[in-house]
Amino acid sequence: MARPRFLPDNFTLALLTTVALASLLPASGAVAHFFENLTVAAVALLFFLHGAKLSRDAIVAGISHWRLHLVVVSATFVLFPLLGWALKPLLLPLVTPDLYVGVIYLCVLPATVQSAIAFTAMARGNMPAAICSASASTLLGIVITPLLVGLLMPEANGASAHHDTLQNIGRITLQLLVPFVAGHLMRPWIGGFVKRHAPVLKFVDQGSILLVVYTAFSAAVVEGLWSQLPLPALAGLVVVCAVLLALALVSTTWLARRLGFSKEDEITIVFCGSKKSLASGVPMAKVLFASHAVGAILLPLMVFHQMQLMVCAVLAQRYARRAELVQEPAAQAAPTGR
């Protein structure tokens, strides 16, 4: 039986279930401390596996395309923050101040890796460049995201829990970068195992995110998250995320064409430059913000994450159909051997 189009994907349903569980049965006391420690271990394992998946051939093949990577990094860490900051007079009235902090946090996050690469492949874009660009965005985000948080969100609504930006970078490096590098160095020995068991290891990827979401929302619910978020603000958040995603998609498409990139490179720029990483954003938020504030700060990221998946899936299919239409006349015109 075909899956109804209006039904979200399984991971989104799992996210919603996790939020509901944290709202009804939030972890507190010793249980919350246990989940905090479990979350740290799960996130370390997640980035260890990401490092093991990244081949050096893909790095070498994609790293030479520096103009494309510069556009993607600029879109991720310059365009998005400027949009969030410049549109404050329009966006802030639609949401609460705490949710707007989450919107700005969303804007300073690195790009996704897996979904950006998957959509680039579906749309027949430049795959080596997508792998290199998306992975570089994740690694750069370990340093750039805390710097931008310190610059754009100094003590925003009391949400910032740590004053030392360098300390934040060090903690994020220890939790994310060190396992990532360790996994990549172990790739000659475990790369084959990771590739063979990719469907099973996907549960580690998603399970770690669900763990962080549960602990974050548990702490927020204990502090009265839902009583502080009116329903109109949640509806406004959907509008805000839609506006940001639309502007990002239009801007990256325009930049790619204005700078003369090929269609394959345009596809890579659009899918790598318009997306934000839930896998990186959730654990980073645990480091950068006070526990009781993380739940509200992550809401915009969760809404944007689902929205970007749905919109980019449609966009990737349109790019793929266009590629097929271009290839068909070329195939018909090609001489056939006897």
Notes on the protein architecture:
By secondary structure, the protein is mostly helical. Helices cover 79% and strands 0% of the residues. It is built from 15 helices and no strands. The chain has helices at 10-24, 29-53, 56-63, 66-86, 88-91, 97-107, 114-122, 127-152, 165-185, 187-196, 198-222, 231-258, 263-273, 278-288, 291-333. The longest helix is centred in the last third of the chain and has 43 residues, at 291-333. It comes from Paracidovorax wautersii. This is Sodium/bile acid cotransporter 7.
Brief account:
The chain has 338 residues and is mostly helical. 79% of the residues lie in helices and 0% in strands. Mean pLDDT is 82; it is low at 157-163.
Secondary structure topology:
Layout: H1 10-24, H2 29-53, H3 56-63, H4 66-86, H5 88-91, H6 97-107, H7 114-122, H8 127-152, H9 165-185, H10 187-196, H11 198-222, H12 231-258, H13 263-273, H14 278-288, H15 291-333
Offer a few descriptive terms.
single chain, about 350 residues, mainly alpha
Q: Which structural class fits the helix and strand makeup? A: mainly alpha
Hey, roughly how much beta strand do the residues contain?
under 5%
What's the total count of β strands?
A: 0
Largest sheet: number of strands, sense, barrel closure = none
The radius of gyration computed from the alpha-carbon positions, rounded to a whole number of angstroms, is 20 Å
Helix content: over 70%
What average pLDDT do the residues reach?
A: 82
Helix tally equals 15
Distance between the termini: 45 Å
Which spans have pLDDT < 50 for at least 5 consecutive residues?
157-163
H/E series, N to C?
A: HHHHHHHHHHHHHHH
Overall morphology = globular
InterPro entries: Na+/solute_symporter_sf (IPR038770), Put_Na-Bile_cotransptr (IPR016833)
Keywords: Membrane, Transmembrane, Transmembrane helix
Protein name: Sodium/bile acid cotransporter 7
Transmembrane segments: 39-56, 68-87, 99-122, 129-149, 169-186, 207-227, 233-256, 284-304
